[in-house]
Predict the structure.
Amino acid sequence: MDDVVRAEFPPGMRALDRWTYRDVECAVASVGRLFYGLARVGEFSHGWSGKVPSPALSPEEQHAVDPDNLGEWVAIPAEDATQYWSSEALSRVVTAASPELVGWDTAGHTWAMQHLRDDVETFVDEILGGVPEPRSP
């Protein structure tokens, strides 16, 4: 059972996966065609997220990853989502009413999500530094 109270998610971001690691709320989110790893690190968030303009984001989408919008969350940028799907799958997503991903595209998505989870957990480890992991009673 997850004992961490879920925080309000940053506006403009779509949560794809949420979990708790070392008592830190973590997530993978999308904004436009970009993926981000997120960690809610409270007072540690200051100075970690910077304004990084992306030509792949509209001004509204760019606002979603603005540090002022993120609050206690830190955004860890990832690659454009298009690298994880074939052009065929992307065209189906754009043109089909109910797209279905083929095996290769599903594997790419699964790999991308795990890669982002690993990046977020590595970031949390770096932020917490010498703080030991909580032990189960």
